[in-house]
Amino acid sequence: MKITIWGCRGSMPSPGAEKNKYGGNTSCVQIEHNKTCLILDGGSGIQKLGKALDPEINEINILLTHLHIDHIMGLGYFGPFYNPNCNINIWGPSGSSESLTVRLRRYFSPPFFPVRLNELPAHVAIKEIDNTCFQIDDFTIHSEYLCHPGATVGYRCEADGTVISYMPDHEPSLGSSDFPNSSEWCSGFNIAREADILFHDGQYNNEEYDRRIGWGHCSMDNAIDFATLSKVKKMVLFHHDPTNKDADLELMLAESISRKKFDYDLILGKENDVFEFS
Ligand SMILES: [Zn+2]
Ligand SMILES: [Zn+2]
Hints:
By secondary structure, the protein is of the alpha/beta class. Helix content is 18%, strand content 28%. Bound molecules: zinc ion (2 copies).
């Protein structure tokens, strides 16, 4: 199983020489296993993924966590949508009053985008999920609503004994008065539990977070506590703030590490990083 980060920046693309190490593209992670292609979110990173994708693959599953623009902005620039031989399933949550299809049509329509959803040459199927368990080839996938503004899910993708958890936008300290001491009522715990690799929001340092409580994102300190509670084997910090340069991210992580005790691998998400599991 191969996992590739195509974008791990939060909120908006953020290119620049001082951000080259961790990258400026927004959320997109690819999971390849046997002939299955799962794509987690359609941020700006998905454009590059479309160009690199094996042309033999004609069945693609895109799993959207939510419809904030940084998680869907790359969809219109994803090459396989313009291949009439390609089947693309888009999974994601509905809104409280509108279906996933209606919400996606807003992005795929003028003035935001010139091509409408039903004009895309590929065969596109929209599949709504909520707190759901579903199967894609060898993968058993669980989705569950998370603490984040608007309908947002996290994904737990499991195949051949490997568990990958993906929660790029998540504020777990809200919702449980006992965070991080109890897993009961803790947002995201069922998705992250004992994962081999967890991709998790770590957008802010403690000062920044204190000024942004309720915005739907996480401090690195809280992400570390959440991963400890969830007993993961590795955490990849994700959704880097667009204002933070490479050196800022490394300083934030060093400060968090100096305050926390944990027993798993902890790294900053970096565009083009690849993780392999057998
Ligand atoms: Zn986001
Ligand atoms: Zn969001």
